[in-house]
Amino acid sequence: MKIKHSVAFVTGANRGLGLAFARELLARGASKVYAGVRNPDGVDIPGVIAVRLDVTDPASVAAAAAQCADTTLLVNNAGIARVMPSMLAPELADVAREIFETNYYGTLHVSQAFAPVLGANGGGAIVNVLSDAVWVARPFLSAYAASKAAAWSFTNSLRIELRGQNTLVQGVHVGFMDTDMTHGFDMKKTHPDAVVAQVLDGVEAGAEEILADAVTVAIKASLSGQQAAYLNPPEIV
């Protein structure tokens, strides 16, 4: 599909990667960009239409899909992460449930609500922002990694089902990005603009998967070898 003249709905578009998506979609000529956020009053992006959305609340998701029934491109970007001191931390189960509500069930709810909208509008595309953590689960991000692995599995199944309605489902795998989520972490980070450019180019080319940085490319390439990256994760630098 073409980005120009598309109608896009981006979850979590008030900052970081979501904000980069909203700006680039407008720059590429999208006719309308909806920003699905919990607090619409906090969105001040010229040309972007703020829509109240809580991805953990199915009623909120359904209302947003009904309001934005002209959507042709959905970007499931909303996500959260929590750093844990240990896999044995007693609060890990509660933290995991919280993260799954947004990263997995949120993606599921929004995809289910908007897939019929996209189908009615000719097919379009769904972009699910995932992570290299689907393949490399470091202990301090174990709950986040598990949620993204579940979202990856959901994405792979959704892709197969929605081909019949001419909807592209793209999974985006990326490592650490320079956003609020990684603020204070001293490591090499990919700029959100670079990720968005690859994703939108991929949507136009019909790409079903994006590996957005060199580390992610290397991690996936290792999976069929005897020293797969999940056995010995690469050092964070």
Polypeptide structure, described:
- The protein is of the alpha/beta class.
- It has one domain (7-222): NAD(P)-binding Rossmann-like Domain (Rossmann fold), CATH 3.40.50.720.
- Helix content is 40%, strand content 14%.
- The protein has helices spanning 16-27, 58-67, 92-103, 105-120, 142-162, 192-205, 214-222, and strands spanning 7-11, 32-37, 48-52, 73-76, 125-129, 168-173, 209-211.
- It has a 7-stranded parallel sheet with strand order 3-2-1-4-5-6-7, with helices on both faces.
- Helix 6 links the parallel strand 6 (168-173) and strand 7 (209-211).
- Helix 1 packs across helix 6 (192-205), helix 2 (58-67) packs parallel to helix 4 and helix 3 packs parallel to helix 5 (142-162).
- The mean pLDDT is 94.
Key attributes of the depicted protein:
about 240 residues, alpha/beta, 7 strands, globular
What is the element layout, followed by pairings?
Elements: E1 7-11, H1 16-27, E2 32-37, E3 48-52, H2 58-67, E4 73-76, H3 92-103, H4 105-120, E5 125-129, H5 142-162, E6 168-173, H6 192-205, E7 209-211, H7 214-222
Parallel strand pairs: 1-2, 1-4, 2-3, 4-5, 5-6, 6-7
> Termini distance?
37 Å
Determine the number of helices (DSSP H or I, runs of at least 4 residues). Answer: 7
- Tell me the domain tally: 1
Major sheet details: 7 strands, parallel
- Strand content range: 5-15%
Q: Tell how many strands the DSSP assignment holds.
A: 7
Order of helices and strands: EHEEHEHHEHEHEH
Query: Which CATH top level class fits?
Result: Alpha Beta
CATH T-level topology: Rossmann fold
Mean pLDDT: 94
**Coarse structural class:** alpha/beta
CATH architecture: 3-Layer(aba) Sandwich
Helix content: 25-40%
CATH superfamily: NAD(P)-binding Rossmann-like Domain
Spans of at least 5 consecutive residues whose pLDDT stays below 50 are none
